[in-house]
Amino acid sequence: MQYKKINNLLGWLCFVIASVTYILTLEPSVSFWDCGEFISCAYRLQVAHQPGYPVFAMLGKAFSLLSFGNNAKVPYFTNMMSALASGATIMFLFWTITALAKKLVINKAGEAIDEARTYLIMGAGLVGALAFTYTDTFWFSAVETIVFAISSLCTAIVFWAILKWDAHADEPGADRWIVFIAYVIGLSIGIHLLNLLTIPAIAIVYYFRRGKNVNVGSAIGTLLIGALILVLVQYGIRGYTIEIAAYFDLFFVNTLGLGFWSGAFVFFLLIAAILVAGIWYSIKHRKPLLNLVFLCITFVYLGYSSFAYIPIRAAANPDLNNTHPDNAFTLYGYLNRVQYGENPLLFGQYFDAKVIDQTDGSTLYRKGKTNYEVAGKKPVYVYDHTTILPRMYSNEGQDPQFYREWLQMSESQVPTFADNMKWMFSWQIYQMYVRYFLWNFVGRYSDADGQQSMTAIDGNWTTGIFDGGKHLPKNITDRKPGTINGTTYTPLFALPFIIGLLGAVYHFQRKKRDALVVLLLFFFTGIAIVLYVNQPSIQPRERDYSYVGSFYAFAIWIGLGVIALAELIRMKVSPKGAAIAATAICLFVGPALLAKEEWKSHDRSTKMTPHDMAYDYLISCPPNAILFTYGDNDTYSLWYDQEVEGIRGDVRIVNLSLFTGDWYIRQMQGPMNQSAPLPITMPFDKYKDGVRDVIYFDDKKVTGSTEVKDIFDFVTSDDKRTQVQYQSGDYGNYLPTKNFKITINPDDVLKNHVITPDQKDRLATTMEWKYTSNYITKENLAMLDILSHNNWVRPICFTTTIGQENLIGLQPYLYKEGFVYHLIPFKPDTTNKGDQLGKINSLVMYNNMMTKFKYGNFKTAKYLDHESTTMFYPVMITTFLDLTQGLIRDGHPDLALKTLQKYDQVMPDINNSLEIADRKIIMAQTAYGLNDVVLANKFVNSVDDYITDQLDYNYALMQSNSSDLSLRDVQYGVSFINGLASVTNENHQTALNKKIQQQLKDYETKFASVLQRQQPQQ
Prior knowledge:
The protein is an alpha/beta fold. It contains 36 helices and 18 strands. The N and C termini lie far apart (73 Å).
């Protein structure tokens, strides 16, 4: 069979193997994080978060049609889009490896390829492509609706295409491959920007093939030109095109009096005219290089034109319409992620720097009724403590504290440039890139968030070779079929890494130029991203998906490792035998090992947690409720449930992190699905961008509490007598008091079914609370508007996962009814001085949880991801516990017992933290009190197994003098065993108590030197 035919067939075989793998392990519904938003925006062609993903949305829409009207199947088919795109990525990786392998084993162009070398080349392609198929990071994105799968496909196509050009560069018309690359790059901007990072490697391939005098100096110059092209595409074509168009629009609209987009349209026509003229000139005057340049720019723009989708769909006012980019200035801010702020790159402040001056930067514009209005000036700050390459720059939240903890700096220590570099190398590069790289090719302990420690086992890498002597805890290593704990322990024994390292060394020895190209791809899709993104501190989630292009590049070397190994084996056997043996060995220690170890932690085929958790949030709400959310995972899945499956369209979801935008408040003033407009009475002019962005507290010593409506009217008044004048001469509103109240009309509360008639005696005459912030921002202002004018017509709810700072002090009047807090004007419980958020509306909550909730296959799923086990499992156990204890307080012990038994029926026995163990001890106490001894003993044994396992691990650390010994875990662990001993003794569980007492005595002896007789308070 001809080489070309074999190459094509095996490439398609790789596609089939990878695609089948991903489809078998596909998540059947929505996933956590951005997936819910992406599916919703694809299904209804809506506008997702910045910087927009129009090509991805349109492709997703096409795949969603395969559901044929069964909306619950929409995510399955959009997830399949990622699976097939990932399978195609593997196919192009195979062809990329075989192209490079062919150059390694063929000495002269046109030389015949014998059978032995065919085996060797194909073996290299199979090993490298299939190894990457089963890598942790790539597999994760391959089974959910996320942009990184299709982005990886674009990267694979572009890199394969430049090698295709390289192979045919001397043939007429070969430069069409370059033009094709430009078009794919333009299209990929509408998916994700990662594909742009292939440009420097492409430039070097072009230079090595067409350069007349190849040397180090000109190669460096070419690399700089490649980086410049990257910058021009990223900032020039993608960014400044829209910015210049916006200023054209400003002139045409404000000066010439024409309509919005008129100036931008003229500018786009001007660009088109320049490109056409350039192409015509280059053809007429026979300038092929100039012609290629103009064609490439044209096709980048052609691909980039997909972003016309954004303003077109924004103008249609879909339900999800992030920033409402229906004009050129808003579109520019949208594409450049202005909402997220800027990270300093080459020069900037340290985290402890003080602002010593502030000047006005560029003018900010907003869309008015007939023209553009000035929204303000962009502030430019001058700091007293700056540096080049600022890495530790953020003073937000806990970032300064984390910098000091990571570098072991005292509170008074001033950071230096050396600290800055130490942070960059130890955290940004090692912890947030190298650790991820090692996950994929060396091995991994668990999927726990490991951002905060370089040595702890949680979230760290491991070869697995020396783990046998570490006495690892069972929640890491327990790999029995059907268990949840420990399924992400993935020892790879560093074998894929060793093969890749062997391939890289061999590649540099035999084909330095090709190896340099792969190295550039590896660097620019890895370390270069780290340097550019300049992550400030701890991230909301692990960021390994950002660097998948770098892992892709390393997989090329894994494939070439087959050739290197065959060279060693060939000393003993024939070339054909060496090729077959090397391929077999590398298939076993590469793809086969990866597939075996990684499958268990990527099989999401039975997981429904995100879908059902979102369902439970919505089903917890009374009819026509207003539900305030905050984070991604308590918003995006809810959007999916509503927008795609039509679940509880009467509930209005309000994301408070978006409620800071005037566009979002305005959107909430309109209808959505089956939800009426929110009771927000402010006209747009009172809260538009630049107006009442922040209202500061100025204590006027107002006696007593003030009606919220009066406060709202005061802070939104345009009367200068209600405002304060600043040094600049401008006027602004202020908050005169933090003591708020709402007078209760019992008839309104009863008429709108906020409470039942038998709860009327619990009703307060007024709701009084203290506002908890020193300023009012737009989302707080809109909330005050709703509180002032709702009159109990619509139930007001908050997700139970929301931060307390977002509750503006309403905690005394918030009652759990499932996964939400419902605002109910009951008289505050003055006996409860502790957690105000443990209160429940017991019978309503019981009905929701026992008859309406879904539990996401929590107990039966083959695999539960990090968010399910560490984010939502604690929420579930706390919710069940609160309901149980609330029912007991309200005189329903029979229902409380049914609640505990329901928990045991639907929830798995997960132990992954001391906090979970603490809750289970309380559950055990409660079960004993309700006379279910069997269930109580089950809880006790579960906690005991977990705690003793953790203590045994820490004792092993103590014996080896390891700095990873956790004093907290030891102290709390011994304390919890003491608690278990007390609980079992009080409830006459003699045999169980005897075992636990013996354990307590044993651990108190073992840890006597660290306990210091000081036990923590439970």
